[in-house]
Amino acid sequence: MTTFDQILPITTEVLEAHRNTVALLDWLIINRDLNGRVRFIAPQQSCEDEGQRTAVEAIYQALAERLGPHAYRTDAGVLYETTQEQARHGASGYALNGFDQVWVVDRLATEANWVRIAPETDGALRIVFFSIKGGVGRSTALAATAWQLAQTGKRVLVLDLDLESPGLSSALLPSERQPKYGITDWLIEDLLDNGDAVFDSMVATSNLSHDGDIYIVPAHGAEYGEYIAKLGRVWMPKLRADGVREIWSARLNRLLCALELRIQPDVVLIDSRSGIDELASACITDMGANLILLFAMEGEQTWNGYRMLFEQWQRSHVTEEIRERLRIVGAIVPDMDRMTYLEGVRESAYSVFAETLYDEIAPADQAVIGLTEVEDGKLLWRVDDLVEGWNFDEADEGAPHYPWEVNWHRSFAGLRSLQGRLTSIDAQEVQAVFGRLISGVRNAIDSRSTS
Ligand SMILES: Nc1ncnc2c1ncn2[C@@H]1O[C@H](COP(=O)(O)OP(=O)(O)OP(=O)(O)O)[C@@H](O)[C@H]1O
Ligand SMILES: [Mg+2]
C-alpha cells in the first residue's frame, strides 16, 4: 500500500515517463491537500485544448493507479486554473526534482512550512536561539549573552517567544519590574486593531547591567490573566481593512519592527520555542533572522531532528537562502572529557551539514575544459574556472557546523533563579562558560556595523 513518503518518488517516476507531454504545459502543480491526497492543477488553456486535456488526464490516471489512497478518482483529480497564482491560493511551493515547471504545493494544517525564508533584515542584528530538544540551556545562554553585551555598552532587546513555555523574562527580571503586558497580549489586541492599548506597557528594562541596557519583552505580563484562552488565539491571521490576509508571523514581525523603532537596539536576541514547532518556524524562517544559533547536545535525537529540518530545506531548494546564517552551539559541554565530547558534536554536526546543506565540490579531474577557439588562425585552449561550492573542512572553525561551546558550570546548574545568579556572578565566570558563544555573537554584531 502506498504511503505519504512515496508520493514524490512515484510522481517523479510517472511524470518522467511522460516528459514530452509535461513539457507542453506552461506549468503543472502537484497539489497535496490537507489529507495528503494529490491532485493536478493545470493551466486553463490545456483544458480547452482537447488533445492536451486528454493527455494530462491520462497522466493523472497513471499516477492515481500507483498512489492508491493518496489519489482522487480520475474525474476529480485534475483541476484547471487560469494562472498559477490562482492555483496556489497563497501557498508556496517548490520545483519537483528534475522538472522546471512542475511545482509541489503542500496544504498544511499550520502556517509553518519552514520553507518560506524571509531575507535577512538590514537593521539591528536579529539573533535566534533555537534547539531541537528542550532544556539545553538556550534561555540561560541568551540571558548571559544579553548581560555580557550590555556590560560593554550595547543596547540589547530580548524577546521571549517561547510562548508555550515562557520563563526567560522572569529569569531576567525581578517580579517588581515585570511589565503589565507581554507579546501574547499584543498579538490578541492586534486582531482587533487594539495593539496600541498594550504597546507602551510591554517592555521592561533589566537592572542587571551597568553600562548598556537590556530591554525585555516577555511572553506575558506581570499578571498573566487568561493565558490559555489568549494563547489559543495568537496564531490567528488577520484580515486587514484593505482585504489583505496577514499571517500571524507577519503580525509578529510588524510588532518587532515597531519595538526596534521605539528602542533602537544594537542587537535583538530572540528566545525561540524548541523543536519542529510553529513558533520556532516563525522565529527561524519568517523574521529575517541574521544569525540562527542551533543548540545541540550530542545524541541521535538531536541530529535526527536537525537532519529532518535541513532535508526539508534541501528538498524545497531553499538551502542557499538560509545556510549562511546558521551556527551550531555545543550545549552544556560536560566537565569530564570536554574535548572528546566537543569533537563528537563537531563530527556529528559535520556529517549532517555535509549531507544536506553543503555543496559537493566537483573534483578537479571533472573540471570542464573549454572548447578550442580559433583566433588569428591560432588554436587556443580555454580551461573553465573550477566552480567552487559552499563547503568546509570538518576542522574549519569558521564553518557553521563547528560548535561554539557553552560549558557546564555548577553556578548555572539547577533551577535557582537566573536573576540571582547573574547579579552575583563575575565577568570571568561568564567568560569561562559562555565566552566562545559571546565572542561569536559580538563578531557578528561588529561585522554588521562595519559593513
Ligand atoms: N552552562 C550551564 N551549566 C550548567 N547548567 C546549566 C547551564 N545552562 C543551563 N543550565 C541548566 O539547565 C537547565 C535548562 O536550562 P534552560 O532553561 O536555560 O534551557 P532551555 O533550553 O531554555 O530550556 P527550555 O527548552 O525548557 O526553554 C536549567 O536547570 C539550567 O539551570
Ligand atoms: Mg528556555
Description:
By secondary structure, the chain is an alpha/beta fold. The protein folds into two domains: 103 residues, no CATH class; 298 residues, P-loop containing nucleotide triphosphate hydrolases (Rossmann fold). The chain is 39% helix and 18% strand. Strands 8-9-7-12-6-13-14-17 form an eight-stranded mixed beta sheet, sandwiched between helices. A five-stranded mixed beta sheet has the order 3-2-1-5-4. A two-stranded antiparallel sheet has the order 10-11. Helix 6 packs across helix 17 and helix 13 runs parallel beside helix 15. The chain starts with 6 loop residues before the first helix and ends with a helix. The mean pLDDT is 90. The site of adenosine-5'-triphosphate has 20 residues, from helix 6.
Rg, alpha carbons: 26 Å
Average pLDDT, all residues: 90
Number of domains: 2
Strand content: 15-25%
Number of strands: 17
Helical segment count: 17
Task: Estimate the helix proportion, in percent.
Answer: 25-40%
| Small molecules bound | adenosine-5'-triphosphate, magnesium ion
CATH architecture of the largest domain: 3-Layer(aba) Sandwich
- Overall, the morphology is globular
Strand order across the biggest sheet?
8-9-7-12-6-13-14-17
CATH class of the largest domain: Alpha Beta
